[in-house]
Specification:
Structural class: mainly beta
Length: about 140
């Protein structure tokens, strides 16, 4: 099944912190005209000159088409992370309904607040993913 990858950035110093979104199409229900997808968001610190400290608790959310699908508060440790050693911020699996013609493009918004890291502040990404069209009877 298709997988979609995209990047987001950190707040104050976007070149230092990266947010990676991985969205996977698990299945499509032709009768129900919907897709089951999994979205996982990862973060990593890409600035080896600075040893990032463990932030205090920060809010996070995942929105699909501006509807909150997952939210909460957590404390993430980005120390020692890199593009090949990322930390999972959150994941979500669920269904998204398609339009009557079987088409669907979703907007994925991911956010993680990092209030204890002054050089970071937050992670944010907003990306669009066009799902494969579900065939409709004519």
């Amino acid at each position: 099944m298709p997988t979609y990858y995209n990047q987001g950035v950190g707040g104050n110093y976007p070149e230092r912190m990266k947010l990676r979104t991985v969205a996977t199409l698990n299945s499509q229900d032709i009768t129900g005209n919907k897709s089951n997808i999994t979205i996982a968001c990862y973060g990593y610190y890409d600035y080896p000159e600075y040893n990032v400290v463990n932030p205090t608790d920060g809010a996070y959310y995942l929105k699909i088409d501006d509807v909150t699908k997952k939210s909460g508060t957590q404390n993430l440790n980005f120390a020692g992370t890199s593009s090949t050693n990322q930390v999972l911020i959150f994941s979500w699996t669920g269904d998204v309904a398609h339009a009557a013609d079987g088409s669907k493009t979703i907007n994925i918004k991911a956010y993680q607040d990092c209030p204890g890291v002054s050089t970071l502040d937050y992670l944010y990404g907003s990306n669009n993913w066009t799902l494969p069209t579900i065939p409709r009877a004519s």
